[in-house]
Amino acid sequence: xxxxxxxxxxxxxxxxxxxxxxxxxxxxxxxxxxxxxxxxxxxxxxxxxxxxxxxxxxxxxxxxxxxxxxxxxxxxxxxxxxxxxxxxxxxxxxxxxxxxxxxxxxxxxxxxxxxxxxxxxxxxxxxxxxxxxxxxxxxxxxxxxxxxxxxxxxxxxxxxxxxxxxxxxxxxxxxxxxxxxxxxxxxxxxxxxxxxxxxxxxxxxxxxxx
Length: 210
Ligand code: 5GP
Hints:
The protein is an alpha/beta fold. It has a domain at 4-54 and 115-201: Rossmann fold (3-Layer(aba) Sandwich), CATH 3.40.50. Helices cover 40% and strands 19% of the residues.
């Protein structure tokens, strides 16, 4: 599978202002099928006024129920390559045959306002974010096992066998890189994984003892 690397120098020039900004960038990564989307949805439901999800651009076709501008911005390959050329993306990568990337402008705007933004992205993108924005909190979600990951990918019935096999291949590489992240969370039981993320992102204030 081709794994194209963006030119980090052009990205760091464009995104350099982010380092000074008052907001927080949170990167959530983990293999396809691990349950990132479900965890993110639950966190956003609970903290809709404190946490914002970045809407990515992709060249993948919409799945049933996915809405342009809400789940993704669905781009043609030409549009996506134009966005790369014009340095409109904070990071981008090719994953399982499609481009995925984070539009830079909304991130800059929200970070400048002091907001907290969540990026749900794959490994290569997370590595690029770490380079241009080292202050970002990077979290990796692990499956309890590779067998369980395969079971989840197959049971959600969203992708062809070929796409699932590509995602599983990539999952092995991603899981091996979990140690690069600030925090790892195993998504065995959804409620337990969600508790870990909650206490990481929204720690309860300490009760002062006199
Ligand atoms: P899916 O096709 O299942 O929606 O996403 C496939 C993979 O692409 C997931 O691991 C997801 O986290 C990742 N992804 C989604 N948006 C982005 C993005 O903007 N940048 C990068 N690098 N990966 C993304």
